[in-house]
Amino acid sequence: MSLVQDDSRTAVSRAHREEWARIVASLTRRYGDLDIAEEAAAEAFAIAVEKWPEDGVPPNPGAWLTTTANRKAIDRIRREGKRDDKHKEARMLHDDTPLEPLGAIEDERLRLIFTCCHPALAPETRVALTLRMVGGLTVPEIARAFLVRETAMEQRITRAKAKIKAARIPYRVPAAEDLPVRVAGVLAVLFLIFNEGYLATGPATDPVRRDLTAEAIRLARLIRALLPGDGEVAGLLALMLLTEARHAARVSATGELVTLDRQDRGSWDRTLIAEGHALVRERLAAGEAPGRYQILAAINAVHTDARDVRDTDWSQVVALYDQLVRVDPSPIVALNRAVAVAEMDGPEVALAAVDRLADRLSAYHAFHATRADLLRRLGRSADSRAAYDQAIELAGNTAEIAYLTRRRDELG
C-alpha cells in the first residue's frame, strides 16, 4: 500500500468518526427520513474510499462528504419519483414549532440523538439505533456487540426507523420542560452501551469490549460538548473515564477478572483519572444537588484517589452510597453499599444487609458472588461454595466466571 493510500484511508477513518453523525443529522433534518440519510451517508463514505486514494484528500473532508451525501439523497428521491411526498413528509417530521430558548443547543447531532433515544422506542432499540445513526457502527458490529443475529438487528433498526416515521416523532430537541427526562433517557442508553463493553456478556465474546466502552465515551463527550451545563452528563462522562482508566488491570494474563482490591494500580491510566477527577470537582463546585451518575462518579473518584487499597476512605464511600440510596433506592445500590460496609463494620454486618435483598436479587449473579465472599470471610466454607455455584451459573462474563470458579475451588 502506498503512502498516499495509507494517508487517505486514515483520513476516511478520521472523517467517519468526526463527521458521520453530523452528516446523517443534516440529511435527516433536510429530508425528514432516516433511511435516506443513513443510505446517502454510507454511499458518500464508500465513494471517499474509492476516490480519495486517487484524487487526494479534499481540503475540507466534512464538506466534501456532506455534498456527496446530499447528491446521493437527491438521486434516491428522484429515482423513487416521490419528491413532493418526501418533502411533505420532511415538513411533518421536522416540526418547526418554536421552543423555549435552550441556549446554544442547536447542533443537529443533538436532534438526532434525541430522535434515536425517543421514549416511544424500546430501550434495546434505542441502543441499536443510536449506535447505527449516531455512532456509525455497522449492523454486523452492533449485532456482534449484543449477541444478536445480523438479520434480527437489521430488522430491529428498520422497524425503529419505520416507527419514527409512522408515529411522526419530531426531529428536534425537546422543549425545556421535557429536557431533563429526555436527557436521562439518552444517558441511560449510553450507560447500557458502556456497561456491555465494561463487562461483556456471552461465551463467544471478549470479557472486556473496549470498542464499546470507547464508543460510549466518545458519544458522552459529544453530549457533554452539546450540553455543557448538564450535571448528569458531566457525571456520566466522569464515571466512564474513571472506570475505563482501570481497564488494563481488570483482566489477568490468564483471562481472569481481577477485583478492585487486587488490581495493579500502577497500570491505571492517570490521564483519564485526572480528567474524571476534574469533572467531579467541577460538579462539586457547582453547588447543585448531585444526581445518580455524579454520585457514582464521586465514589469512583474516591477509589481511584487511593494509591493502595488500604488507603481507601471507606467512610466516605459509605457516605456517598447513603446519598445515592436517597436518589436511587434500588436493591443493586443497596448491595454495593453493603460491600463498602463490610470494609468498615465487618462481613457479618454486611451479610445481614445482603441477605435482606434476597427476594429481589436472587436472579442476579453479583448478589450470590457478594454473599460467597462474605461467607468465605466468616469461615463458612460450605455456604460460601454453594453461593459461588449460584453466581457461576448466573454469570455471563467469561473473565468473571473464571475468577468465581477459582475462588470456589480454593475452598476445597
From TrEMBL:
Keywords: Sigma factor, Transcription, Transcription regulation. Residues 23-82 form the RNA polymerase sigma-70 region domain. The keyword Translocase does not apply. The keyword Iron does not apply. Residues 113-164 form the RNA polymerase sigma factor 70 region 4 type domain. Residues 182-282 form the DUF6596 domain. Belongs to the sigma-70 factor family. ECF subfamily. This is Sigma-70 family RNA polymerase sigma factor. The lineage of its organism: Bacteria, Bacillati, Actinomycetota, Actinomycetes, Micromonosporales.
